[in-house]
Design a protein that fits this description.
By secondary structure, the protein is mainly α. The protein is built from nine helices and no strands. The chain has a single domain, classed as Tetracycline Repressor, domain 2 (Orthogonal Bundle), CATH 1.10.357. This is TetR/AcrR family transcriptional regulator.
Length: 213
């Protein structure tokens, strides 16, 4: 008598509406983390996303899980923007500028929770995404520097700080009302990174290691 081989059941794929709800939650959380910080109540995130509280908790059982998803989603899209910029064969500094503006559109300020003392900075997903962003951005800067277009006294940390600060709306204002100023002020900042340098910068260039201290 032969024993029937048990069938292996595939895990069901998430429904399209469930995926859309998850994306809405992450988008709403990203905006609210930028505006109000990572401690914004889940109720407010659910309201902005247009879903119920239970939907938020079903997707993200705790705050760290949601913050991690937001940060990883921001960095994943930022990686794609950097890869696109590196694939371009035209002006090296203009490619760097396009990357910086794309990073600002992704609310790179949402990375700020990574430096929180209560946040798991060593999570493998975060480490991998962070390394990819850093590597690609440094390549863009090195290419612009080799072309004589980027001043010698700036590093990746300077770029990240500038983009993060300029993509964060002033206290008390929403993302929408600040959007019209972001790219104007970011371009002013980027112009200051062009070579030849017009002035001597105080202090020293901000490196990746400086940001992690």
């Amino acid at each position: 008598m032969q024993t029937a081989t048990p069938l292996t059941r595939k895990a069901p794929r998430p429904r399209a509406d469930a995926l859309r709800n998850r994306e809405r939650i992450v988008t709403a959380a990203r905006e609210m983390f930028v505006e109000f910080g990572p401690e914004v109540p889940f109720d407010e995130i659910a309201r902005r996303a247009g879903v119920g509280n239970a939907t938020v908790y079903r997707n993200f059982p705790d705050r760290d899980a949601l913050v991690r998803e937001v940060v990883c989603s921001v960095m994943d899209r930022t990686v794609r923007a950097a890869e696109q910029a590196l694939s371009e064969t035209g002006d090296a500094f203009e490619a760097l500028e396009r990357f910086a503006h794309a990073a600002a559109d992704e609310r790179i300020s949402a990375l700020c929770p990574m430096i929180s003392s209560t946040f798991d900075q060593s999570h493998p997903d975060l480490e991998d995404a962070r390394r990819r962003v850093e590597s690609l951005a440094v390549q863009l800067m090195d290419r612009a520097r080799a072309a004589g277009q980027l001043r010698d006294d700036v590093e990746y940390g300077d770029l990240l700080v500038g983009v993060a600060q300029l993509s964060r709306p002033p206290a008390g204002t929403g993302c929408g009302s600040a959007d019209r100023f972001v790219h104007r002020h970011l371009q002013l900042f980027l112009d200051g990174m062009r070579a030849p340098a017009r002035s001597v910068l105080p202090g020293s260039a901000v490196t990746v290691e400086d940001l992690r201290r």
